[in-house]
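User: Hi! I'm working on a homework problem where we have to compare a predicted structure to a textbook description. Could you give me the structure for the chain below?
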Amino acid sequence: MKPLHGKIALVAGGTRGAGRGIAIELGAAGATVYVTGRTTRGQVSEYNRPETIEETAELVTKAGGQGIAVQVDHLVPEQVQALANRIEQEQGRLDILVNDIWGGENLVEWNIPVWEHSLEKGLRMLRLAIDTHLITSHFVLPLLIKNKNGLIVEMTDGTAEYNRDHYRLSMYYDLVKNSINRMAWALAQEVKPHECTAVSLTPGWLRSELMLEIFKVTEENWRDAAAEEPHFIISESTRYVGRAVAALAGDPEVSRWNGQSLSSGQLAQVYGFTDVDGSQPNCMPYLVEVIEAGKPADTTGYR
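Assistant: Happy to help. Predicted structure tokens:
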């Protein structure tokens, strides 16, 4: 029996990147996974990328679960409410909510002060990354908290500890990623009386589809990118953070993490899972102890 057999999950923002990796690994553990996003085989979002929610759902099913693709714009309350109603009607429950809605990469103007950064792009980023999470929680959590041991995972970039001391190179991006960590902490206070758990989770240097394109490599030959950026050797696949979520979802004592800000590398040390290559990259300390310390790329003790 797979550890998440019979569990119902929603990966909001599961079209690509971490969301896709998480959906696949929840499926591999036996869960039924609703995958939402705006891009389908018949319609492309403003993000203008080729990945679709149907592809992700098919990968979930191929991995051993049941993938269900539902086109949803999480900025439209009526669509999110309809999604929650559908899950309740079809499944009668929801055990896992992964809030991975983002889609703001094309809006960030790096190393540009707030008075020069496009206000339109900045505010749109906040809408896409914060409002969507709030709208989703509003409509979906009443179903999740009906049963004990529900899990909410708010996906972000950087732990609360790291982000507290590191400016994330854009006022808007910094605000977004710190807000998600705080959002998870606040949710933890609200769902605790219902014996549910909320955490925030960050991957390390993620080999998303976009990142692989930037370095002109694939998941199969990603190590070739180290010739251009030596520290890329600490990077991790999208499946790694997916295994972190699956480990949390399968932990009968997951409540011990309630309100905490976690990383994929940290959880690998606790639960013992590995990335697809059998290693355990631990990016967050590597960023500080190797990259920021000006040391040459060396993953000894970090992978």
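For your comparison, note the following. Strands lie at 8-12, 32-37, 66-71, 96-99, 151-155, 197-202, 261-263. The chain has a mean pLDDT of 97. Good luck with the assignment!
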